[in-house]
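Morning run. Coffee first, then this:
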Amino acid sequence: MRREYVYGAVSTLLTAAVTLGALEVVVRTVFDNGMQFDLEMWKYARQIKQLATDPRIGHEHQPGSRAHLMGVDVAINSTKLRDDERTYSRRDGVRRILMLGDSVTFGWGVRAEETFSHRLQDDFTRAGMPVEVINTGVGNYNTSMEVAYFLAEGHRFEPDVLVLNYFINDAERTPVYDVSSIVRISAAYVFLKSRIDVAERMTGSTRRKDWEEYYHDLYRRESPTSGWAEVERSLARLAAVCREQGIKLVVAHIPEVRRLSPYPFEAEANMLRELAAEVNVPFLDLLPALRDQDPMKLWVTQPDPHPNGYAHGLLADAMFEPLRAMLPPDR
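And here it is:
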């Protein structure tokens, strides 16, 4: 009886292992077409990211890493940025603008030369102005992590102007990482978990909020998911440091592009505007630059509403004049 029990258990485990292995192969060879948002983000985490030594930063890019993600090439330079090679020491006569931000600033699904950072630098070059626009965007950063990065490393670039590019989910809490998780090794797990999540949201499951409600909750202080208080503390600290170092800081509000008119997050945008005023920092609202557009024209793909290259161009156009006015005279 005991032998039959052991044989049965081993047979069950082998069957499960074969089934899971087959599912992994199917996901990687059939469903993974290089444009599945969840799988591409998983590859980004595996191929480009690494844990940061500072837990307040959480994660960062691996210097010199490369990958093909969401249809575009991603190359990380020696200072862990998706940008041209940059030295911390600045060149004589060249002014600097440093962009803090998340996956939008990073340029998820957008070629490096199409990101608003790169386009702004091209705009300054065409205007005959020697300006470097440095892109420090990292996917899945929140405001707290962006500020922690700047205070630890980004300040070494000695920017004249610092732009905190703010997106609606930047009030998320800083994640705690489990590097031993199955998420690190299984594409099938990531794919199926994502599909279950989508199904629950579409069917109105009480376990899952729709995307608008999820974002609203990030700004409700009583919500357990809200990180707004940390945004307030982080921005106040950043403003104080910039004043001490003579850096001009601006908060740029980048809208969520799934629905632009009526915009569902006007109240949250006003909270950010008021916070910027409280810490005496200029506020640049980029919603007007996109409001009259067909939202679907702005997406990387229909399932992935990150701003595409066209949207990045509109954002760069809206940023150029305000940032040019903030630059100091030629050095």
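The CA atoms of residues 19 and 269 lie 48 Å apart. Good start to the day.
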